[in-house]
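U., I forgot to send this yesterday:
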Amino acid sequence: MKIVTVSQMRAIEREADAKGVSYAEMMENAGRGLAESIHALGQENGWDSVTGIVGSGNNGGDTLVALTWLSQAGWRTHAYLVNRKIAGDLLISTYLEAGGEMTQFANDTSLDGLHNFLEDTDVMLDGLLGTGIKLPLKTDAALVLQGVALILSDLEVPPFIIAVDCPSGVDCDTGLCADETLPADITLTMAAVKQGLLSLPAFEYVGALELIEIGLPDDLKSWTAVEIEAADANQVAAFLPERTPASHKGTFGTAFVVAGSASYTGAALLAGKAAYRVGAGLVTLAIPEMLHAALAGHIPEATWVLLPHEHGFISEDAVHPFLNNLDRATAILLGPGLGDKATTKIFIEQILPSIEIPAVFDADGLRHLSSIQDWHRILPVLSVLTPHPGEMSAMTGISRNEVQSQRTEVAGKYAKEWGHVVVLKGAFTVIASPDGRKTIIPVATPALARAGTGDVLAGLITGLRAQGVGAYEAAVAGAFIHAQAGLHAADIFGTTASVLASDVLDSIPDIIAELE
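Result:
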């Protein structure tokens, strides 16, 4: 799913119109796609009545087209018009001919008609306002949204709310929201995701996010120019390696994980298990020797390289045993839980020139890298770097606040400057490639705000790289699976507060099963 600004979306529609797909056709396609999605939900849930809040703009037009289609499909439909002129509006006359009911806010200032509609509806379409709004809202729009909220709060079973393109009251560029904005259960967005929907606070009102095609031509320059995408299940499923009956463990590669220290014993375990869970054929854990007794029984499938250490931290003497065991690895992860000791930094500095396989650098590995001269020139081609905002600040010298305020721009700039794939973790994780591609993971959840979840993510990406998945694709797929696993774990517990990194790890098989 591409991510666009409001002006980019307007340019795309303008070019499409110039190339023969008229605005009217795009609206018809959008409304039909909207109706088909609603109809499918209705068949799943036994719903057959719908009310659309219809504004004066294109979102209102999309809603009328959808209501007409649903009327013809046998649904009971209600249109509640707000500041939309009836005279000469072909969409309204077509809707009425299909048998739909209609009331205007101008004739219903008490909102009794709206109340009657909403009492008799399974689904409510929020098509009041579109992407071009300016805050604060005008009086009529604010009154209607406030009225809807009040009516819904009194209903024993409120309708399922679907936002048309965006929840009314959201600034689709900045993500700011009017106080009157209604939270949607699903937002069905047209052609592309508007960038503000993947920002807070707007994201809290979006609900599930799904795309509706509007029939754009294939050769639009304005469409091709959009480099930012939101990851979705279909895209990620296509990135996963094929698993045939003739496969053996060698088919799916060996992930070599250099991780752990006396202070962070579990990091190696979480990363290694994640690499296995995402499908790697073999995982080798290279750890300080003293950790082996504590870890071995928890991951019996792993093989081990026991490294010399100083007080539980990998020492520079570990270089030779490391290199002697690297020959069969198809990808390497370096960093989770290594700690900040100088002897570990020397170890990393000495091994870097010898690493020629796909590599992922995470956590303490990144902090050690940032102190090495020209580190980005020494790494294997298209390594994957997985910093959180604090680590990104340490690596770039810019403030954490600047990183957070311009996440997409910062990730893209340094991916190009360093020549490696950057995974900037956090709410709406950003994956950026040196070639300009950027993908945002459309998830923001405190379920992942827990120690160890980054180790799981690093292991996922490494496991995919070990299986031959490209650097950018592995980063996108790993981050998507990781985010969905966090949501899944929170659903199991009924709260985000109790989710541990190990719970995210345990949810990975369910997410992969859904993708397959």
